[in-house]
Amino acid sequence: MLEDWVSLQMKLRNFIYNNYEFVYKIMNMTVFNADDVRKTELQMAQNGIPNKSRLCAVNNLSPSVMLGNSILENQVFSDIFNNWQPMKTSYTQSNNTGGRPEKEIENLTPSGENSKENDTNNADNRIWGDNLNIICVINQTKAENLMSKGFKCIPTKTTNGTIYQFITNHELENYVNNNFSVRDFFINKNLLF
Fold it and tell me: What is the model's pTM?
């Protein structure tokens, strides 16, 4: 309502010209919700929403100051600011090892031993939700070939014989695709019991 009144007054006083049109907006911010509005605008900017001018407005920076700062930082002092580095702290440094040091074998719990044996902490060996694929092999010789390469097998007896089931990972998929024909295996989404 206030925005409409301001727009009307600007038209009546000929402050708006035909070749230059703009919209007058008042931020929905009071002294009571200023911090919440700032947080919201900052989160929107961090998520890629183009609202830098609104973010400056809620922090009491006029459009002319924002434009001046932008030119000053990006064109005049760009080579200086590009050479600045953040202080070296635990937040900005990493040794890329990730996690805590490994325990000795004798100190592992049974589930820890299982994780180490199956290498389940390796991201390539993790299987999540829809990515679960089971490579089923019917030929015992082919299955033994895979087992000799270190792939874990779950043999399941059926009325027609034994199906050798292997839970996929990238290494297994590559090996099967390169060394088996299409008739040697099939892929199932469910583990057979």
Answer: 0.38
